[in-house]
Amino acid sequence: MRPDTPAENVDHAAEAARLERTAGLYPEDAEALLLRAAAHRELSGDRPAATTLYDRLLSSETSVPLDNPALVRALKASNLWEYDHEAEARAIIDGVRAASPRDPAPWVIVAEALESHDELEAAHETFTEGARLLLTDVPEPPYSTHPLLYGRHRVRRMLGLAHDAWDTLADTLHSLPVSLDELHDPKRVWSLGSDNPADLEAEISRLRAELGAYRAALSRPFPVAMLHWPAGELTELTEAYPSLSSEYPSYDDHLASIEAALRELASSGTPNLGVVPGTVPSYEAFAASEGASPADPTLLPQYATTLAARGLAVAWPPQRGAACWCGSGRTYGECHGQDAAGNR
After folding, report:
1. What is the per-residue pLDDT across 188-210, written as a single tens digit (0 to 9) for each?
2. Distance CA 286, CA 275 (A)
3. Of the residues 10, 140, 184, 285, which has the maximum number of CB atoms within 10 A of its CB?
């Protein structure tokens, strides 16, 4: 599906089938592709088929570890609850919460599932658990955690709770002209029954602002991703295609050039930066799909962009205390981020 295809013109069943076929061609990308396919199955109304895809991913975890099993389980639970499998959905949600994932997405999904079924207290507890785990002692919340704060703010408004520090932080992060308090006001719906045109006009403005927030979240560009070859992959690449040695004189030079390029982009104001790992088999398959030779260096940035479009890029810079993007096993601050503060 092209990014500019209007949603109402999408054949969700056909798009799901296409993604499932693509997952068969690129098994290393199966997780990202099948999650997208499951979303299209849900949108087409075939929720049992979506559950089958989630189960397929979870059953493969023993042989091919998933990047984000908590996300798959959260999506499965949310989907199950929508077609009368409440007990199973609740059990999975309890398991996700007990696992304490370090990714905000599973927290948001299970909390919103609870919220959509009027389990407001449980939703509030879940949003708060996720925020406490991921945002305690974090100087600036990463973009990916904003939905946690916004969702928590929304549920607290519906519960009639007073603002706390995290609600204030959510208000600060929210940049649209209509405040979060207005967007999350549980009395908003009452204005729809008003005979006063001013009330209706105000509600239309609020809805437009809310729609703008959703569109902004959905239309964020893919990361400007730098291609990272792990040491073994880089050795295999340059041995198979010696002409690429000029691009990669050594592994240390390769890592240094990635970090330098990312810092330069960050200093110029480029947002949404990332690093995406490459593998020789996947690169060769990509070259074949483009009808090009893997020895062609102009193919490398296209390959990186394609991997990023599949959701395989990791955000740069990593969060404080997170592992370095290079795979050294050390934290970013101890590795390539040692003098980051002075270079950004």
Report:
1. 655 556 667 777 777 777 777 76
2. 18
3. 184
